[in-house]
Amino acid sequence: MKTVLKIGGRAQSSPALASIVAEAWRAAPGSLCLVHGGGDEISALQRRLGGAPGFSGGRRVTSEEDISIVRMVLSGLVNKQLVSSLLGAGVPAVGISGEDAGLIEAQPLGIQEFGHVGMPARVNASIITTLLEGGYLPVISPLARNADGYGALNVNGDDAAAAIAVATNAAELLLVADVDGVIGAQGTVLDVLDVETARGLIAAGTASQGMAAKLEAAHAALAGGVPSVRITALAGILDAAAGTTVTLAASMAA
Questions:
Q1: pLDDT tens digits, 50-102
Q2: Which of 50, 144, 184, 198 is buried deepest, with most CB atoms within 10 A?
């Protein structure tokens, strides 16, 4: 049973992350795949270099010049820091990028609005399978090869994780957020949320920016056949009852 973890935000820099992932790995060795973000670090480097981060619909706008920054931060600094911390916790982690061996191929999302940003179009699942069968935990930076030609595209980590979960026939996709789950219209965390209600939360602005992107990725994973999708805080990696379970239909929540 494979589980794809997408870690981002404050959870990614939490001192508890490595030990929590290590416990999950020991419980089911060879069954985890981790996709990470690094938005805060990218924004910080952009500002130091005189630029300014921009977003549209929870996705980072990425200019041609920004691609070098994204590569440096995601596939270099953040990826290797995560691998180092996981190795220190006893997890045989291997850091790779979505560009490596064409792991992720993406189509441009819209140059005028997003710049060099893409949506996953193909995932070479054999690379992940080879690592898992060899006893390694893949730690994946969500950059992708541009399926339309030479170069890289920045892919939202949630979108990348959803596509990887579909391609690897994962049993579960966990989107680890900075909150305990999806906050509903009443201001409380929802235990279960169907995609139609999720669209309403996005339209009303209750779920916006990063959470909207997570809900869209959850829908894509479910539509692609992933049986279970949860949006949860870091502790939810070890607690199957934590967070918000996203379902395709309201009847499934009954």
A1: 888 888 776 788 888 889 999 999 999 999 999 999 999 999 999 999 999 99
A2: 144
Of 152, 75, 166, nearest to 108 by C-alpha is 152
Selection from 63, 37, 39, 40 nearest residue 51 by Cα: 63
CA gap 126, 170 in Å, rounded:
13
201 contacts 218 by C-beta, under 8 angstroms? no
| Widest pairwise Cα distance in the chain | 51
Kindly give the pairing relationship between strand 172-176 and strand 3-7.
Answer: parallel
Q: Which of 73, 150, 162 is nearest to 116 (CA)?
A: 150
Buried b (16+ CB within 10 A) or exposed e, 114-132: bbbbbbbbbbbbebbbebb
Q: How far apart are alpha carbons 78 and 17 in whole angstroms?
A: 14
Q: What pTM was estimated for this model as a whole?
A: 0.93
Only one residue has tokens 């619909």, namely 57
6 contacts 173 by C-beta, under 8 angstroms: yes
Give me the sheet containing 192-194, strands edge to edge: 93-97, 137-141, 32-36, 3-7, 172-176, 228-232, 244-247, 192-194
172-213 confidence digits (pLDDT tens): 999 998 889 898 878 889 999 999 988 888 887 888 778 888
Instruction: Compute the CA torsion angle 242, 243, 245, 246 (nearest 10 deg).
Output: -170
Q: Going from the N-terminus, what domains does the chain have, and what CATH number goes with each?
A: 3-253 (3.40.1160.10)
